[in-house]
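--- STAGE predict ---
source: upstream dedup step, 1 unique chain passed
mode: sequence only
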Amino acid sequence: MVIKGIDRTHWLGLRMVLAIAGALLLPLSIYILVTVSADYRDARRATERATLTRSQNVANEVASRLKLVVQEMRILATIRSIQEGNWREAQSRSRDIAQLDPDWRDVTLIDLQRGVSLFDLHAPVPQEKAIDMITARKIARLSAHHPMVGEEIQLRVRTH
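--- STAGE serialize ---
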């Protein structure tokens, strides 16, 4: 019998060659599939480990940065001129402390009971300016929940 120009013996021979090639390629295909999936799994695990390591490093940097900011705020709280109500000297000393940390943009001392800003570093000289009471209430609410803002930095100031 002739199939499209190939007689039966050639057709059987061709089928045999194709069967042998398929038998050889199937295990090779399975091996490649298993190897690629294992490599993908290993790469995924390595990526996960690297990501976790980076996130832990970022968390550690943030924690140490916050610790430094808290220490700087404690230093600000000990300025004698603030306790004495000498705002010009307090502003000058606050400016010196703020310059030690390039991330600090401003220091503002606020009297929440009167709703006034006593000084900030952007002003050339200390001057009281009224702040809106919405902001004052937000700061007071924050002070009630965070001791660094409320209790430790809350100062007894002599008024003249």
